[in-house]
Amino acid sequence: MDNGGQIAVEAKSLVKRYGVLTAVDGVSFQISRGEIVGFLGANGAGKTTTLRMLCGLVSPTSGAALIDGIDIFREPLPAKAKLGYLDEEPFVHPHLTGREFLNFIADLYRMPRGPERQQRMERLLGLFELADRNGELIGAYSHGMRQKIGLASLLIREPSVLLLDEPTNGLDPRSARLVKDLLEELAARGTAVLLSTHILEVAQALCHRVAIIDHGKIVATGTMEELRAQTGSEKASLEDLFLKLTAGPESKELIDRLLAPDL
Amino acid sequence: MLAGFLFLAALFIGGGAFTVGASAGRFLPSARDIILAGGFTALSIMMLVVGFPTVIATMFVGRDLLQLVVAPVRPVEIFLSRVLLAMTANIFISGILLMATLGVGVGSSAPLIFYPLAVLLLALQVLVVTSLQTILMSFVLRWVPARLARDVAAAVAGLAGAGFYLAWNLSLSQSFTSSSHPDLANLTAVIERAEWLPSAWPGHALSGVIAGDPSSAVTWLVFTLAQAGVLIGVAAVMYERTMLAGLGVFGGPQALWKRSSANKVPSVAKTGTASPARAIARKDWLGYRRDIRRLSRLLPALLFPVGYAVAFLRPARDGRGFWTEVFLVGLITMFLSSTLGTPSIPSERRGFQLLRMAPLTMWQVLRAKVMLTLIPVVVFALLFSVVIAAATGSRIGQFVELAVLVVWLCTGFVSIGVAAGGIDPHFESADDRRSVGVIGTLAGIAAAIGFGLLSVAALAAFVYGIAAAQGTARLIVVPSTPTVGVVMVGGGLLLAAGAGAVVVTMMVIANSRLRRYEGAIAE
């Protein structure tokens, strides 16, 4: 498919049903090269299932997922070679050291061995402050360190598309800032990023556009200005917009009910 | 059904122990003290070895300990509640000695007080051993992380359990085949040397009751109660200190371990072509080497086929000896392939997600797993063949035939084992032994039997076909002619092709199932 070389990720009417439950219901959106798109939704809204369909882990009931114009279910190998996916709880082999894990991933993706790869690995380990953990098994890493080595395992092979599910989950403020700066830099160099997060401040500060999913359906997409125009709230923050677009019981009402004296 | 089976097993084992005890009590009156003291000591050693993993897991590693420690509960109450839980494995083991001890009482016409006292002393012994294990672990945890200690203890317990079972079976098989009577003199001498051990004191007390010697019984009883009081008290204090020191589930001496391994140079080749298959193999190898828990489950499983093969091995120098060797080699390769090959795909656990996302086909993953498993299985099976061939005095020609068969069988059985794991993987299972579902297990068994029978039939067709062509075969009804020989070799080729087709079918199904797999990795 010719997309003029600009569209890096395209979800085409993705549907995923588990028996009677429709987890994702006709999700469509596009991400251009160099664009960071925030993917927002409440717990169980269908974010993770959408991401897993986009990276080829879960096959859609209907619809298609295209990476650089390549259908990931029809031609999985070339599409996967361009893609990096970070799960919200990334799996990292606990019985390998950080270096061994990075080498394992690099070998899986057939990155040529040699000084270039070695230097890149050392730079990443240094960047994420893991270089002095030489010899230590990942099983002994803290949650944040596992998140960092998971991110490093994506970045070592320079994918042109990044699908990230809560990448700053468990990171200390300094590392979280590092990840944000890194994503901006990567986007500036042409990497397309789909960022699923619950931290709306991060999304507002980092993302060029956001897509909001609710009960498996995309309820809004666009830049902050476009979302404000859609909802008629001129100075609303992303949090306000999100709550408005995924309307549920007002939190104040719930708190009042919880703290009522007769409870 | 399982409950019924367990009840029958308990009845059989308990009944057996009771009968042995009763016979000893009735017919060996002079050996009652040695039997009881030796029984208590043997039980204590067995509990000490086999029950350690349960004690570590219950008292030091369980995540629910965190809730208990932060709750307004006194440490001694935590100790008592955990020690009761930790005793479960030891209580199970002590059931056998209880039945034997009660049997000794019945056989010796012991007074009524003997029976409640026996139950009490046995329960106390379980508590004492559990306390001793707690004390030992409280020291060990200062230098070794709790989870590592648990895994090592599980490995030792697994090997000890498998060793006990194997030794028991081999000694049974020897008693049925040997005409000589067992010599108990050495065993008695060993027990006599160890009768001063505190673990033997409850046995002396019970023996005093049977002998109608109240002063001896009371003396040993007081010693037993005193040592129990001291050990339980020390264990309670040590346990509290261990918790307060932040060891066990709270962390422990990991930093020390980190430092000791920090200077290791990463052993990854700096240049060369990247190979996903090699990467998977290397990762699996490192995982096996470093995951003591997996090793602890693997080693006892490997011990059984070797032990049984050795037990079955009988010197045979005629033509039929060769087929005994074929049977043994087939058995060994099937066991090894199943033990190592079947969990190789499910043992990826959530790591399978990484393989699915990588630009790899499932064929490549299957091939990598087969290659990795094949190497140790072929090496081990060939070594075993050399030993068998040497023991039975096989001719070189027969050994070559056996070696070719070994490589063929290993390739087939390993592929079937790996495919069975790929057909029905349970990636969520933390235990390799339960990581393949019923469909995969049944498919693996059926395919292995089919492949094995077809392969051996093919070998028979080749061996007798060639002999028939040379006119040397002793076929009962069929004439030994070149035409018959050619027909038999042709039939052998067809049978071998059938065996190969079984393997290919399994691999094709596994590939298809893995490509479509979404289960645990999508959760």
Detailed description of the structure:
The complex is a heterodimer of chains A (263) and B (523). In chain A, helix 3 (98-108) runs parallel beside helix 5 (143-155) and helix 8 packs across helix 9. In chain A, strand 1 (7-18) and strand 2 (21-32) form a beta hairpin. The model of chain A has no long low-confidence stretch (mean pLDDT 87). In chain A, 37% of the residues lie in helices and 24% in strands. In chain A, strands 6-7-8-3-9-10 form a 6-stranded mixed beta sheet, with helices on both faces. Chain A has a single domain, classed as Rossmann fold. The radius of gyration of chain A is 20 Å and the shape is globular. Chain A has 263 residues and is α/β, with parallel strands linked by helices. Chain B has 2 domains: 8-254, no CATH class; 283-522, no CATH class. Chain B contains 19 helices and no strands. Chain B has helices spanning 2-27, 32-50, 52-61, 64-70, 75-107, 114-140, 146-177, 185-193, 201-211, 214-244, 254-261, 276-290, 292-312, 319-341, 352-357, 362-392, 396-423, 438-470, 482-516. In chain B, helix 5 (75-107) crosses helix 6. Classes of the chains: A alpha/beta (263), B mainly alpha (523).
Gyration radius of chain B, rounded: 29 Å
- What is the overall shape of chain A? globular
Structural class of chain B: mainly alpha
| Assigned CATH class of chain A | Alpha Beta
Overall mean pLDDT of chain B stands at 80
Structural class of chain A: alpha/beta
CATH topology of chain A: Rossmann fold
Classify the beta-strand content of chain A into a percent band.
15-25%
